[in-house]
């Protein structure tokens, strides 16, 4: 799945997930029969045909196989014959349902007296007297379940609910007509909601799928359709679409979709059919073109990279109005959220375009890695998702070579996951198979560590092996295990083979030994280089130096660290740090020579130096920053700010890394700086530091603002460079926030122009979010009322979202208070948007105390109406308490906890505890650093 998965999942679906645990039931087909008869080898005659399906409860007595979540390994499915019939109109009970039949052939590998399958008790009802039939091949009497092939058959009925899991429905309106799509999301454990099956990734089989559907609708599945006929079943006229049998595959990759969507067609070298499916109106507006244009090149890139042709006869990609994850890599029929596949050049921003390219590249990467070769069990999910999250950059880079998108991985994955992995509460990438059993434990694996740390350590591996060697090992892995399953060490084996056949690659240890240290222990090292002695040391990096690590590590928190480095611009030979401390004399510098380690942040670690080397690096930044590679300029900022938080260097040294920014024109270092300075702004925007901080940042951003004015011909165009477009957005955001007058004038004039001509919005889609917000912040009631009218009038979801959030930017207290009231009135604000408005008001420095009062005054109401079982509640608490940094606020927070203990905090309970902890840490940080920061800023402001 694409990254959006765990984000959206955390936001809203947690309640459902927890609920699902109790509902998963394993069907036992033959638990009841006479043990004596087994010896006569005729047990399974009549007896079984009439055996009812006992629905066994999952009480925690581990003794019986049906009380475990995992299936026994005695039986292996071979083929399934599935017919499904979703009804797109409600039945007489007002329900959307589907019916189905499934016949399966399975092989008995070990003698057993039990046939266990997964089925979801709540969603699936077995019909026809609740019987399942078991026969020998070709309907013969069933033999004993011992080294033989058997056929089982079931009929069932399920609800086509709007729960976004299993076989579900998605609704939308087109041309005033309400339309329904029947679609699926099987990963990780929802195939069992669509039909009874062996729902484990290693229980691969061939699927023969037939869909029955209303005439005039289109049915899609993993394979190409091979027969479409109109027929009458039970007095209903339907179309029957039969699909070619799939390759041998896992249940979680199945997809069945019925819709009245339209499509665009392209092709990959004539033989592979490539199609983009979406709502008719969206395709008529040209929104599918971009995805179609990038799909061909990306597939071609992967064929070369993996050295293996695309394994299927077609590649369908479909945009769904209701979809939980960002996207899902169903083999041959990838499903997407609309924003991840559709791109409208008129309305969408540069960021929307980039996410289409990267999400498509991510999902297509899985067609081989994950689908053709599948990890045996969910404990190795990090390898599947980390891999796709890494190579998506390579695929997208091939389709959009001018974007330099590979560089962005450092910001979007490496720096992002450093923040999580630097906490004592982190966890290793790999978990033991037996630790991951229940659906909730499986869903937990879809987290930032799996995706982003997985991607970061695989990128490091590919960098030290070199890409050709990495790709060679990968290709031999894919060939050997095609249509089968693996564990992560199988990949290490094949990479090791590739290393052995490449004499130019010298590793200090095997791929296994090196990688296990990154995979089996949590966290990452900070490497400290003392350039006066050439001494290198490593230490587990912890953001809070006082935190206690109670998770033991098999390697005692030391790593084998590949160090790419340069001396005054000259790239030196890579060095491996294999001990806790060692001397590497080439790293001694002399005179004004500076040393820079972890070139391009290809290694997953932070770097610290002796003070003199820091000074020389800073001098280099001041005199000619281009001598230092652009990714490392971003690294120096991010490392310095985080080393300061961890008390390894002084805060003023971290601030010093921002001094050269007045000369920086590149997006990556600026973005890195903004992310780190954001904490300063939050901590200080209500106190004495803010004046000097604002003056300093205004002085730093001003040259960039002027740069973009010239580059865009007085703001009449958008920069052509991809990251320049992002940088322009950041520039306007920071310039207006720091009070660059020309910026205020510019955004307000654009907005007033729009107010005069409401039907002709002059603001470029890239800039809408920041321009709306600034104009409303700088303006008054008129600006606010206009935006409110445009919001109430808006029919485009993305536009409405931008306006909704911009309305929280006003500095007028009564407008903010009124908006807070509106947020709880379902007649004006949809319930799903309420908490995001409240936390967004809290992120406004004027709005924060208002939102805090509002929440405290209405806790009871908020909690009963919005809070129970939903994750958005923890976002609310996080949002409102983000600035808290005084003793008084800490006291209020504790009081709040006490006052409302009888009501409770639901899913916000943990967030409240964390808020108290973070506030305590903020108070300490402000006390320790405030004076130094004021002094430093005062000397820097000219
Ligand atoms: C089935 O019926 C629909 C609607 O009447 C028609 O458009 C379609 O061409 C028919 N398909 C076949 C294969 O006959
Ligand atoms: C048709 O109706 C019969 C009797 O209600 C039922 O047993 C059968 O399963 C139905 N067929 C399909 C394909 O739904
Ligand atoms: C660092 O990245 C840049 C651009 O992404 C590339 O041109 C350069 O060769 C890389 N340097 C090293 C030492 O890998
Ligand atoms: C931009 O505006 C400035 C001042 O108003 C003017 O001098 C300059 O010629 C303009 N540049 C362009 C390219 O229009
Ligand atoms: C707002 O909506 C009304 C009713 O749909 C429409 O008549 C009007 O033109 C819209 N105004 C703007 C500024 O879009
Ligand atoms: Zn994925």
From TrEMBL:
It is found in: Cell membrane; Nucleus. It is an enzyme of class 3 (hydrolase). SUPFAM superfamilies: Leukotriene A4 hydrolase N-terminal domain, Metalloproteases ('zincins'), catalytic domain. Zn(2+) binds at residues 362, 366, 385. Binds 1 zinc ion per subunit. The keyword GTP-binding does not apply. Keywords: Aminopeptidase, Cell membrane, Disulfide bond, DNA-binding, Glycoprotein, Hydrolase, Membrane, Metal-binding, Metalloprotease, Nucleus, Protease, Signal-anchor, Transmembrane, Transmembrane helix, Zinc. GO terms for cellular component: nucleus; plasma membrane. Transmembrane segments: none annotated. Gene3D superfamilies: 1.25.50.20, 2.60.40.1910, Neutral Protease Domain 2 (1.10.390.10), tricorn interacting facor f3 domain (2.60.40.1730). GO terms for molecular function: aminopeptidase activity; DNA binding; metallopeptidase activity; zinc ion binding. GO terms for biological process: proteolysis. It is a single-pass type II membrane protein. The record marks 451 as: Transition state stabilizer. Its cofactor is Zn(2+). Residues 524-632 form the T-box domain. PANTHER family: AMINOPEPTIDASE (PTHR11533:SF300), PROTEASE M1 ZINC METALLOPROTEASE (PTHR11533). Homodimer. This is Aminopeptidase.
């Amino acid at each position: 799945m694409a990254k959006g998965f765990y984000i959206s999942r955390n936001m809203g679906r947690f309640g459902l997930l927890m609920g699902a645990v109790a509902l998963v039931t394993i069907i036992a087909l033959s638990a009841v029969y006479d043990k004596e008869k087994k010896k006569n080898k005729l047990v399974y005659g009549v007896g079984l045909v009439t055996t009812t399906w006992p629905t066994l409860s999952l009480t925690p007595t581990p003794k019986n196989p049906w009380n475990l979540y995992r299936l026994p390994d005695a039986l292996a499915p071979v083929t399934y014959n599935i017919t499904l019939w979703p009804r797109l109109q409600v039945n007489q009970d007002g329900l959307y349902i589907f019916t189905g039949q499934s016949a399966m052939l399975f092989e008995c590998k070990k003698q057993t007296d039990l046939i266990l399958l997964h089925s979801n008790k709540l969603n699936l009802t077995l019909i026809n007297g609740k019987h399942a039939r078991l026969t020998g091949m070709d309907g013969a009497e069933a033999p004993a379940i011992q080294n033989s092939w058997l056929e089982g058959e079931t009929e069932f009925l399920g609800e086509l609910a709007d729960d976004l899991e299993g076989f579900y429905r998605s609704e939308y309106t087109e041309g005033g007509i309400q339309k329904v799509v029947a679609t699926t999301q099987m990963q990780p454990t929802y195939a069992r909601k669509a039909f009874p099956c062996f729902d484990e990734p290693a229980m691969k089989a061939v699927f023969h799928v037939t869909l029955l559907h209303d005439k005039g609708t289109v049915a899609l599945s993993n394979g190409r359709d091979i027969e479409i006929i109109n027929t009458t079943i039970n007095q209903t006229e339907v179309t029957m679409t039969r699909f070619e049998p799939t390759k041998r595959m896992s249940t979680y990759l199945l997809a069945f979709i019925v819709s009245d969507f339209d499509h665009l067609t392209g092709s990959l070298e004539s033989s592979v059919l490539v199609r983009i499916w979406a709502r008719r109106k969206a395709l008529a507006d040209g929104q599918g073109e971009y995805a179609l244009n990038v799909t061909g090149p990306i597939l071609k890139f992967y064929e070369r990279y993996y050295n293996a042709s695309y394994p299927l006869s077609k590649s369908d990609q479909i945009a769904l109005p209701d979809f939980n994850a960002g996207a899902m890599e169903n083999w041959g029929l990838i499903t997407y959220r609309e924003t991840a596949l559709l791109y409208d050049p008129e309305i969408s921003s540069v960021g929307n375009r980039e996410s289409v390219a990267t999400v498509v590249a991510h999902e297509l990467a899985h067609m081989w890695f994950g689908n053709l070769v599948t990890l045996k069990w969910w404990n190795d999910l990090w390898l599947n998702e980390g891999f796709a999250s890494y190579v998506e950059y390579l695929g997208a880079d091939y389709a959009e070579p001018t974007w330099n998108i590979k560089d962005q991985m450092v910001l979007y994955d490496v720096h992002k996951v450093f923040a999580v992995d630097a906490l004592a509460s982190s966890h290793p990438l790999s978990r033991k198979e037996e630790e991951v059993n229940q659906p909730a434990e499986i869903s937990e694996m879809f987290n930032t560590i799996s995706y982003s740390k997985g991607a970061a350590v695989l990128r490091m591996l590919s960098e030290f092996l070199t890409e050709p060697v990495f790709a060679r090992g990968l290709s031999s892995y894919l060939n050997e295990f095609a249509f089968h399953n693996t564990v992560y060490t199988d990949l290490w084996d094949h990479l090791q083979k590739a290393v052995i056949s490449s004499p130019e690659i010298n590793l200090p240890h095997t791929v296994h030994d090196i990688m296990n240290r990154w995979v089996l222990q949590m966290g990452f090292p900070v490497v400290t280089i003392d350039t006066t002695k050439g001494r290198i040391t490593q230490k587990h990096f912890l953001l809070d130096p006082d935190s206690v690590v109670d998770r033991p590590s098999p390697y005692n928190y030391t790593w084998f660290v590949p160090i790419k480095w340069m001396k005054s611009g000259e790239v030196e030979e890579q060095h491996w740090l294999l001990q806790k401390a060692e001397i590497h004399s080439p790293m001694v510098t002399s005179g004004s020579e500076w040393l820079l380690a972890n070139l391009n942040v290809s290694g997953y670690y932070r770097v610290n130096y002796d003070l003199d080397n820091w000074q020389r690096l800073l001098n280099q930044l001041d005199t000619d920053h281009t001598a230092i590679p652009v990714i490392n300029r971003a690294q120096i900022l991010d490392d310095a700010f985080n080393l300061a938080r961890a008390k390894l260097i002084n805060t003023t040294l971290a601030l010093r890394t921002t001094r050269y920014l007045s000369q920086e024109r590149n997006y990556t270092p600026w973005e890195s700086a903004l992310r780190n300075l954001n904490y300063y702004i939050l901590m200080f925007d209500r106190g004495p530091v803010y004046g000097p901080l604002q003056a300093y940042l205004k002085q730093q951003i001003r040259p960039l603002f002027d740069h973009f004015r010239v580059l865009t011909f007085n703001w009449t165009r958008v920069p052509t460079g991809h990251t320049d477009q992002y940088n322009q957005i950041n520039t306007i955001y920071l310039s207006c926030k720091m009070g660059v007058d020309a910026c205020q004038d510019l955004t307000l004039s654009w907005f007033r122009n729009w107010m005069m001509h409401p039907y002709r919005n002059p603001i470029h889609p890239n800039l809408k979010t920041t321009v709306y917000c600034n104009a409303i912040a700088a303006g008054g009631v008129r600006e606010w009322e206009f935006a409110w009218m445009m919001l109430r009038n808006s029919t485009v979801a993305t536009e409405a979202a931008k306006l909704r959030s911009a309305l929280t930017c006003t500095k007028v207290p009564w407008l903010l208070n009124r908006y807070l009231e509106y947020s709880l009135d379902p007649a004006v604000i949809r319930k799903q948007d309420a908490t995001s408005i409240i936390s967004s008001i809290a992120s406004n420095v004027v709005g924060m105390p208002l939102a805090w009062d509002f929440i405290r005054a209405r806790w009871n109401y908020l909690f009963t109406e919005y809070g129970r079982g939903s994750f958005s509640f923890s976002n609310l608490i996080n949002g409102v308490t983000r600035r808290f940094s005084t003793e008084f606020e800490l006291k209020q927070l504790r009081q709040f906890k006490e006052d409302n203990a009888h009501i409770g905090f639901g899913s916000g309970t943990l967030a409240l505890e964390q808020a108290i902890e973070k506030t305590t840490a903020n108070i300490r940080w402000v006390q320790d650093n405030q004076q130094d920061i004021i002094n430093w800023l005062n000397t820097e402001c000219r």
